Amino acid sequence: MANLKVDISPGETIHQDFRGLIPKDVYDLCVEVSREGFSLTLVGGAVRDWLLTGHLPQDLDFELRHTFEYDEKDWSFRVNRLGERLREIYRYQVEFLSFSILRVSWPEKDFHVELGPARLENYSDQGTYGHSDFSETLVSNRPYEETFKRRDFTINAMGVELGSPHTEGEFTFIDPFGGAEDLKNGLLRPCGPDFSKDPVRFCRAIRFGLKYQLKDSPELEKLFKEFHLEQLSLFYFFREAFKVDFFKFMKKFYKLVDDHSIEISSDLESLRFLSLVKGENLQLYSERDVLLFLTYHEDFSKKLEDIEKYCELAKCKMATYKAHLRFKETLVNLESFDADEFREKTKGLSWQEFIKLDQLKDLKAFHQFVSRVGRDELAILGRLNSHLYATFIKVYDALPSVLRGKELFEELLQKEEVEPQLRGDLSYFAHFKELWHSQK
After folding, report:
1. Per the CB 3.0–4.6 Å rule, which of 18, 158, 223, 236 could disulfide with 47?
2. 19-184: CATH homologous superfamily?
């Protein structure tokens, strides 16, 4: 059971100061759209988040409706004309998207709004579907039970209908499928029988279940076995996975695939090893963080082909992976580095003798890599491989990103002729001389 911040019933007028939750610029836009003859209903995740937290997110989606029923061509024309008027007369920044959706944004503001005409989605009986294998019909005046049916889950099929501005009954809660009750009961329930025809919804079911700790409803369990995931694109697969704990997503995805004997593509099959990784609860949310996990974790030291396959399919830069792999080797080589021993070994050396040290090559590689990527990016090592992280810290303490000894470096350049290719090595000599001197 979830504790909702807002307890409200379908069709009920919202008496609290809901208007105060809407940014003034957005509310002014809604008033102007209403004056143009359109009605608006706030829909989607914003309504769900409002019930859970009592607040609205920065991105707000509104469904456009009208009191009159127009044919699709006329309705699309009227919506597009609205976008032109908002841009030319009201001076809003308006983008025209597919399905006649208007995206409105404000310079130097973090929020943006999408105004989209209500629509119906229709699937042909083709057996296997991709994400966009449907035809849409734009409608101006249909019941919410029809227009909300295209949404995935009941918890995402709620709305707040905007009535006459600045009136007591200005906002009305719309909930045709009982989404608020499902949210309160911790239940993930699909909106309709076409749910399984979009393969991305399989991933969204996993994501919402994990994010909000929701149980799969009996209706959802029944529909899982109807999915065909051969056309699930890697773009949507990874996009959904990175929105929650990555490895928890992987474990549940492949478990559901196996439990319901669902066909998947060869690319998804090659990523199955990710479901076996003991990395849940690390809260990894990006392709970079997962790449670093795979690169630095001890369990994958001999599974380079798996990591390369992940790089290829997740669109990671192979150069980034190779650079981190070399840095990992550098850390292994510096495992025995001891600052006190290094000081005793080098304090009496001339710079010509210093630059011939075998360990200097690894120290230079360490410093150049850390200076390039930044220490913050490598902080994740502390969660992935404590042994390598300990090496990283002890070397960084002796050789941070910013070198010391600039004055000594300039002084040595004045005193002696130093070939250009050796000046970098001389800067390391000056750094350690200055460091050892300051520690006396």
Report:
1. 158
2. Beta Polymerase, domain 2 (3.30.460.10)
